[in-house]
Design goal:
By secondary structure, this protein is mainly β. The chain has no helices and eleven strands.
Length: 117
């Protein structure tokens, strides 16, 4: 069974960098059929796709966030990570990691990140 689990600080100060890790079990992040994505949902808003890391390690980001976003991976731990720099209170959201084939099929439970001083 595929499982994803987000981890990281729940509170980040403005201007700092938000860092989250997704630990994957039951599937390899290097398997070619899948890509691994980060999505968030701010209070009262819809889902927002942040970016993806493919099985070969290539990355693609939302154009609106590309300058602040970085996704990386640790294949030895079967983990992939999100870094979002220069955060503001508008980055407050529940952050999800997910596996994607044609679309997201397995999701983590989500982790609340609040940006506040």
């Amino acid at each position: 069974q595929v499982q994803l689990q987000e981890s990281g600080p729940g509170l980040v100060k403005p201007s700092q960098t938000l860092s989250l890790t997704c630990t994957v079990s039951g599937a390899s992040i290097t398997f070619s059929a899948y890509a691994w994505i980060w999505i968030r949902q701010a209070p009262g808003k819809g889902l927002e796709w942040l970016g993806v890391i493919a099985s070969d390690g290539s990355t693609y980001y939302s154009p609106s966030l590309e300058s602040r976003t970085s996704i990386s991976r640790d294949t030895s731990k079967n983990q992939f990570s999100l870094q979002l720099s220069s955060v503001t209170p508008e980055d407050t959201a529940v952050y999800y990691c997910a596996r994607s084939c044609v679309g997201p099929d397995y999701w983590g439970q989500g982790t609340q990140v609040t940006v506040s001083s």
